[in-house]
Amino acid sequence: MLYDWVQNIEFKYIWVLPALGMLPVLAWLRFRMARSLKAAFPVTTTKAFQERGGKAAWVQFPFWLQLLAIGCLLVALARPQIRDVRNRKTGEGIDIVLCMDVSGSMLSQDFSPNRLSVAKDMAIEFVRNRPIDQIGLVIFSGESFTQYPITTDHEGLVTQILSLRSGMLEDGTLIGEGLATSVQRLATSKSKSKVVILLTDGKEEAPETRLIDPNTALEIAKAKGVRVYSIGMAGMDRVLVQEGGVVTRSEPLLDEALLKRIATQTGGQYFRARNKEGLQLIYEQIDRLEKSKVEVTSRTRYQEQFPYFILAALILLALSLLLKYTILRTFP
């Protein structure tokens, strides 16, 4: 604690501090002139004076207390302060929804340790780099769900991202419903810029219960003025299909044509992430493309520390006088 205090201390009148160099000089002069300041009288023997008791050993203690008091006063005159700088960020942000695939295939280990873990890490980094924006989270697999509404409570959002796991929803890949839910979260937004970042590692797998297909979701996004950045996340291009234990064919892992169409028709861009570093670069590029207007206001406050040194000096002086005229009193 004392170390931190010393590290943060500043002196407004630092030119006073060299005066502390006078303290050793005062101590030297005190003992140099000590003999001439003592009273003398003739005695027949000095034997009694050569036996020094415990009290005599402390006779100079008040002088040292006074010297310390002078040092504290000099430090107080130098005006010690602790500077406290506080930054406040304000501005015009962007409303963003992170639309993330949490299907079973997101546990594939072509990204280490798996796709979902890497996607979560990069999403958290993106959120923390955008302090002004309102950001929400929608997840999808065989259904879609709003995990966190758009908010500036980024710590709460990060907690929700960390909690994501495969199996939270019925398995599958309903890109259209994930996109439609994300657009719905932005429907009441008054922001001039509304963005969805859609991340998936597969292509649309439509069960009979599907409500909204990708093309319908695309039209809704266009009608609501929502810009979509789509990310295809996979280290491989094709997947082998087995029938009866025999590989019969290979199919594209991603529907890149669909992801490109969603992005370009809404004014966004499509990106392909083949590894963790690639996904990180994609989020950085989106961060540059979608700039918020941020104003940083700095406020500096100074906490004065000189009263503590003045108080210490007064206590030291009072203690030295008390000792000098009571316990350590000398004659004459």
UniProtKB/TrEMBL annotation:
<dbReference type="Pfam" id="PF13519">
    <property type="entry name" value="VWA_2"/>
</dbReference>
<keyword id="KW-0472">Membrane</keyword>
<feature type="transmembrane region" description="Helical">
    <location>
        <begin position="306"/>
        <end position="327"/>
    </location>
</feature>
<feature type="transmembrane region" description="Helical">
    <location>
        <begin position="12"/>
        <end position="31"/>
    </location>
</feature>
<keyword id="KW-1003">Cell membrane</keyword>
<feature type="transmembrane region" description="Helical">
    <location>
        <begin position="57"/>
        <end position="78"/>
    </location>
</feature>
<keyword id="KW-1133">Transmembrane helix</keyword>
<dbReference type="InterPro" id="IPR002035">
    <property type="entry name" value="VWF_A"/>
</dbReference>
<protein>
    <recommendedName>
        <fullName>VWFA domain-containing protein</fullName>
    </recommendedName>
</protein>
<dbReference type="InterPro" id="IPR050768">
    <property type="entry name" value="UPF0353/GerABKA_families"/>
</dbReference>
<feature type="domain" description="VWFA">
    <location>
        <begin position="95"/>
        <end position="286"/>
    </location>
</feature>
<dbReference type="InterPro" id="IPR036465">
    <property type="entry name" value="vWFA_dom_sf"/>
</dbReference>
<keyword id="KW-0812">Transmembrane</keyword>
